[in-house]
Amino acid sequence: MNTQTSILALMTKDHCKIEELINDLEAKTKEDYNSMRQAFNIFEWELEKHIFTEEKAIFTSYNPEDVSEGYKMLPELTKQHNFIINTLNNWREDVRKRRMINDVYSFKEFIIKHKNFEEEKVYPKLDEALPEEEKRNIVAKINEIVQK
Ligand SMILES: [Fe+2]
Ligand SMILES: [Fe+2]
């Protein structure tokens, strides 16, 4: 086992997976409805799992009393996650009504900005601030959900 546990490394790996899936979805929206629906279902599932993990397993462990300075980022993250969830809900409705999803590109740009924010500002801070024991618990939860 490695001695240093990194939430950043695990979540970055999952970000890469999500980025590949949205690229695939973008390509499939230029093909046919069925390929698009298939790509959407996979993308949605993985992204919802990812956000669930962040909100229920990772950010909940972040105690503002430990690190007051970094606490401001939580409301911003929640706001961005709400936008992501709303977009997924709208797209799910499109798919249900057999409509083609459009403007995947601008959502992709949002997702990339969001992931960069987490990778640069959020996860390094958490890795630094959380006690090893706490990190091990979080990593175990991440592995339950987002890893293949
Ligand atoms: Fe996120
Ligand atoms: Fe993330």
Structure characterization notes:
- There is one protein chain.
- This protein is mostly helical.
- Helix content is 76%, strand content 0%.
- It has 5 helices and no strands.
- The chain has helices spanning 7-28, 33-58, 73-96, 104-129, 132-145.
- Helix 1 (7-28) packs antiparallel against helix 4 (104-129) and helix 2 (33-58) runs antiparallel to helix 3.
- The longest helix has 26 residues, at 33-58.
- It is elongated, with a radius of gyration of 16 Å.
- The model has no long low-confidence stretch (mean pLDDT 91).
- The structure holds fe (ii) ion (2 copies).
Strand content: under 5%
Q: What small ligands are held by the chains?
A: fe (ii) ion
Element-by-element helix/strand order: HHHHH
Structural class: mainly alpha
Shape: elongated
Mean pLDDT: 91
Give the strand tally: 0
pLDDT < 50 runs, ≥5 residues: none
Give the helix proportion (percent range). Answer: over 70%
Q: What can be said about the biggest beta sheet?
A: none
> Measured on Cα atoms, how large is the radius of gyration?
16 Å
How many distinct helices? Answer: 5
Distance between the termini: 19 Å
Concise structural overview:
This protein is an all-alpha fold and 148 residues long. Helix content is 76%, strand content 0%. Helix 1 (7-28) packs antiparallel against helix 2 (33-58) and helix 2 (33-58) packs antiparallel against helix 3.
